[in-house]
Amino acid sequence: MKQIVLENLTSTLNKNPLRVSTLVQTRTTQACSMKTPLRPKYLVIAMALLSFQSIYSFNAVAQEKSPVPITSNSLITSSPIISVQTETLPRLVDAANPKAKDLIQLFQDAAQFDPIYNSAKYAYTAGKEAYWQAFSVLLPQITATYSTQSTDIRYDPNLNNIANRKDYTFSNSGWGLNLTQPLFNWSYFEKYKQGDLLTGVAEANFAQAQQDLIIRVSQAYFDALTAQDTLDLFINKKGLINEQLQQAKRNFEVGTATIVDTNEAQSRYDLVIAQEIAAQSDLLVKKSAIEIIIGQPVDAIFPLSKQAKVESLRQERTVKYLADSKGKLASNDIIEALHLSTGNTIEDWVRQTEEVNYNVIVGLLNVEIAKSNYRSVQGTRLPVVSLQASTGYNNSLGNATSSLPNTYYANQISLQVSVPIFTGGLINSNARQTAALYDQSIANLDILKTSNAGATKQAYLGFTNGIAQIKAYEAAEKSALTSLQSNRTGYNVGVRINIDVLNAQDQLITTQSSLYKARYDAIMNGIKLKSLSAVLTDDDVIAVNKLLH
């Protein structure tokens, strides 16, 4: 088996949907086919009658359920069949709100309240005691005792055989001091090593908990930004569709468009109402996720600047062990994050993750602990040598045979050697068990490295490809906006139909939604990549926070 040399680890982080189903009923008119051509004046009369009938039908339906005017405080469909109204949520993402918080403020609040982080902090405090508990078995064990006893004997005078016996009383008291010093106990030596390793496990787990806190706060933050952006886009989409709907109605009233355009726009309007309601629900869920982490209500958060350069987060770092002259880890070495070039390739990041990821470090330490357990079991076959010394004082006043006091001091020193001869096969069974657990710890470490390698590749590609996606979506947004403007102009002059404008609006909203999400995903993948490589620090949180405004 591969030998792993790891004597000690000193941590550098001691410091501290709502789902809405809407039934939409629409009415459409079908064009009448004429088998014989009409004369021009009859054609004009027929078109006038058709327009009059359509307007009459539309007005009759509208009077059946008149729409409510759209206001800034309500979400209302102008459907001729149904009306939906709900209150608009306050904006979560609002830089003008004096109570708005940025990423750093939320992170600071989470560090004070988050139960997961607090649990890891207390586990770290408790885990550090493993070293002192293991070290204590190598030190002298001293115990002090004190006892006192009084005995009063009374004979029954009615019994003949003891009629001549006299009653008497005697007492006994004393104290003792015992010392045991292990001189050779292989199991104790291994337990001491395990205490040192367990302290390293506690430190690495706490360091990973700090990195996880940054990821969870950042993920909740950008999920909320995504939810707010989605809601804003649907509100904007609703406004655009409403403009198109009103224009279609006006064109129908003057006879330049058919009822089909109005029904199509109405259908899109009703759909966006449902989407807006779902987006409101999702925003509430994402806001609640932040509040769970920080333990207090959130009024508003800062948005990501639309001009933010996400590629500015790219930093080339590596982490290495500070080794001694023999190439081994010295007992007080520190793992440091250094600003050294790694070539910035995916292989470099994967290699770094396999070597210095905090969970990998925990896995390495667990391998060493399992190896020490095996050695400890093997050591139970060896003799145990200990030095024992005691001193004491005894004072007896009277006894069954004499009424004279008996007082003395006693000092004793001895060397004790014990050798297990036969334990019923317990040692052999424990040896086989610990050997299997050692192999299991190695297998678990390999699983962890493989998992981290996959996660590192995903985060690396998510970040690098995300940068390219952002640039592509920015170009697509400009094209979609130009396309919408062209289609609206074409509709006004009669070379485009209403559905073309509505499709162009959908394309613009979809592109903008993808652009905003690409920005957030790229940032999160960059944060996750650094966390996997154990180089995520407060400086990275500050760098991301600078992208907010």
What does this structure look like?
- It is a single chain.
- By secondary structure, this protein is α+β, with helices and mostly antiparallel strands.
- The protein has two domains: 41-129 and 188-377 and 427-545, Outer membrane efflux proteins (OEP) (Up-down Bundle), CATH 1.20.1600; 140-184 and 384-418, Outer membrane efflux proteins (OEP).
- It is 56% helix and 13% strand.
- It contains eleven helices and eight strands.
- A four-stranded antiparallel β-sheet has the order 2-3-7-8, with no helix packed on it. Strands 1-4 form a two-stranded parallel ribbon. It has a two-stranded antiparallel ribbon with strand order 5-6.
- α5 (186-254) runs antiparallel to α6 and α7 runs parallel beside α8 (358-379).
- The radius of gyration is 41 Å and the shape is elongated.
